[in-house]
Amino acid sequence: MKKSSFVWAVITIFMVLVALFFGLRPKGGALANDAQWLTDKAGIQFQGRGMAFVENLRAKWADHNPASFTIEMAATPASVDMRGFNPLIVMHDGADSRQLVIWQYRHSLIVMNGDDYDYKQRRPRVVARGIFSSIREHYVAVVSGRQGTRLYVDGVLADVKKDMRLAIPDSGSELKLVFGNSVQANHGWRGVLHKLAITATDFDGEAILQRYRQWASGEPFDSIRSDLSLLRFSFNANPSDHLKGRAVDSSIRVPEKLVALEKSFFGLQGLHARWSRPMVFDILVNVMGFVPLGIVFYGLIRSLAGPAVWPKRCLAVLACLLLSLSIELSQAWIPMRVSSLMDLLLNTFGAWIGVEIWRKGRAWR
């Protein structure tokens, strides 16, 4: 091997290792799950990089998917203005388009089916605006059935859509319930979840007010009829000490490390995102990060194959595309990272710019 080829090979290997380091490392540098059980009261605290979950949820109610149901929960938000998709609860059967989500955007609470996070698809949703502007525990009830879908906060009706009916997803092989994050573990929420109950009936406003008052007095969620209760979860670190004979599910897992329960390959988030400073910065990083790689790959190929012609330039860009492809595929398994088609395209474009910079630089000499 010529001395120049050896130098190019060393530089190329170094640049590839740098790209792999930044492309495959978890955001924040760690995969530790920051969700933790509270010891002084019932609840799980999430600090933005945490999750808890229940697997095989459908089996817990014997494959009975109710047409009418009520989801009740108690939650305390953190003192942050959270933008983007910050889920408190996700019910997921393998497809984001069918998922049932209760999530926070800034100080509002949103409930919907699907993945229309930026509301460009105009899919129906109910919204409680401004309820998380103060740090205190709230009682939230989502009622869906014959009267449409209603959202209550602290016993008061916050929003109603009479033509909207939520569905618990049931088309996939397994139904998962995730707390404080998405199933891909890349959209962490901040706050505390205290209680959750799912009941197979659509309670009216009077019943919800009664249940809110019952909760406010310190009593747990109780069904009017025991045969209507689907799931009632314990959010105690040691549930056996607090159940007092009540039928609750204590199968919530809080793993030591974040876990991507579903893999998402080449998501289109970047193609649908609205322009913002973080988005522009991300575009520049993805393009400029691969400009040096285009240069070194082209320099290596040219040093090995002689004077550059069009196929040599294609090989350099192709090498960068394959490197980016391997990174994006691997990111599907890394919590807090997103496998993005947009990143792949931007990386390849950056490599092409690098090749052209090398060529133009040689032409000017």
Q: Structural class, please?
A: alpha+beta
Query: What is the straight-line distance between the termini?
Result: 25 Å
Total of DSSP H or I helical runs spanning 4+ residues: 7
Mean pLDDT: 84
Give Rg in angstroms. Answer: 25 Å
Please explain how this structure is put together.
- The chain has helices at residues 3-24, 205-216, 269-272, 277-288, 291-305, 310-331, 341-364; strands at 36-37, 44-47, 52-54, 69-77, 82-92, 100-106, 108-113, 125-128, 138-145, 148-153, 156-161, 176-179, 190-199, 229-233.
- It is an alpha+beta fold.
- The chain folds into two domains: 3-27 and 268-364, no CATH class; 32-241, Jelly Rolls (Sandwich), CATH 2.60.120.200.
- The strands form two sheets. Strands 1, 2, 4, 9, 10, 11, 13 and 14 form an eight-stranded antiparallel beta sheet that branches. A six-stranded antiparallel beta sheet has the order 3-12-5-6-7-8, with no helix packed on it.
- The chain is elongated.
- The model is unreliable at 240-247 (pLDDT under 50).
